[in-house]
Every structure is written in C-alpha cells, then in structure tokens.
From TrEMBL:
GO terms for biological process: phospholipid biosynthetic process; triglyceride biosynthetic process. Its main location: membrane. Keywords: Acyltransferase, Lipid biosynthesis, Lipid metabolism, Membrane, Phospholipid biosynthesis, Phospholipid metabolism, Transferase, Transmembrane, Transmembrane helix. This is Phospholipid/glycerol acyltransferase domain-containing protein. It comes from the Eukaryota. It is found in: Membrane. Pathway: Lipid metabolism.
Length: 203
C-alpha cells in the first residue's frame, strides 16, 4: 500500500488490491473507489474470475486511469524479487514496468504483516524522519512472438530486478504463509529451469 501512495504522487493510478476491513476498508470503498480501483478477497474462490473480467474491462476503457498491478501478489522485503503471477501478462496489453527501491536510512518501509498490523506500520512510517526511495519508470514491454505469458513475466521481472538491484529468487511470495510439499517444490524448480533455458537459447 505504501508503494501505491508513493506512485500516486506521479499520476492517478487505479490499483488491484486485497479488500481490507476497518479504516483501510473505509478508505478503499470511498476515496480509492473514485480512481477505479479493483478489489478482491482471497477467501472467495470466485473472486479470481471476477477480478480477471474487471481487469479486461478496465484496460479496454480509453478514459480509465492506468492500472497498477503488483505481480508478486504480496509484500516483499526490498531485497528479493519473487515469482510474478502470470495474470498481468496474458491480457494482450502493453506493460510499463516500475522499479521501487527503498532506502532504510530512516525507516524500513517493508511491512511484515505477520508481525505488525498495518496501522502500527503506518504509524512507524509517519513518525520517522522520512521515507526515502528511488522509483524508476522503465521502457514499456509487450509480449514477443512465440513468448508465453510466464516467460513474459520473467523477462519483465529481470528488467525490474536489474534496475533496482534485487536478487531474483525462484519461489512464490506466498511461501511466507505456508510451506509447499516437496513434490510441488520440485515441479516449480523444474518449470523455472526450463523457462531459463529457453531464454538462454533465444539469446
């Protein structure tokens, strides 16, 4: 959410975001609703289909605000770039990568939701001297002929990681919430290795 607040200083973005309860939810349903944001609830199984439809409708509207998507799907600790979800890369539209790198000189902007509520995290940021970060708006990218959405996502992740100095890791950001089975880990590693081999062959 802090990324969204920072990027909103440049232009009015719509954003895809988890629906929150409490005062954050009130902001979502009032102020943020006015810029065309799209909400989802991870506990609702049908939300994936509904959100996919809303995204396609949004990008087809010429007068809609640019849609801001965080393809990791979760908060990351400013050191690594985890695997991107492919949903944002199979829409058939231009993707404009944005890299953000926070400087911890005054405060760590990473929100660890398992250890701290968002209210306390926001209070910590607001009582620090400043939140310092670099933002890079990178060259727009499109799906190349013969490229799969997963390969497109990995290529964009490479661009962002190099620019922000992040270490690419072959795991899903949701691993901080649950441990996958050994069979699932093996399948993911094999899929990642095959994708990297294809990219090397193309180069």
């Amino acid at each position: 959410m802090i990324d969204f607040i920072i990027l909103e200083q440049m232009t009015a973005f719509a954003v895809i975001m988890q629906k929150h309860p409490g005062w954050v939810g009130l902001l979502q349903s009032t102020i943020m609703e006015s810029v065309g944001c799209i909400w989802f609830n991870r506990t609702e199984s049908r939300d994936r289909e509904i959100v996919a439809r809303k995204i396609r409708e949004h990008i087809q509207g010429a007068d809609n605000n640019p849609l801001l998507i965080f393809p990791e799907g979760t908060c990351v600790n400013n050191q690594y770039s985890v695997m991107f979800k492919k949903g944002a890369f199979e829409l058939g539209c231009t993707v404009c990568p944005i890299a953000i790198k926070y400087n911890k000189i005054f405060v760590d902007a990473f929100w660890n939701s398992r250890k701290q509520s968002f209210t306390m995290h926001l209070l910590q940021l607001m009582t620090s001297w400043a939140v310092v970060c670099d933002v890079w708006y990178l060259e727009p990218q499109n799906l190349k002929p013969g490229e799969t959405p997963i390969e497109f996502a990995e290529r964009v992740r490479d661009i962002i990681s190099v620019r922000a100095g992040l270490k690419r890791v072959p795991w899903d950001g949701y691993l901080k919430y649950s441990r996958p089975s050994p069979k699932h880990r093996e399948q993911k590693q094999q899929s990642f290795a095959e994708s990297m081999l294809r990219q090397l062959e193309e180069k």
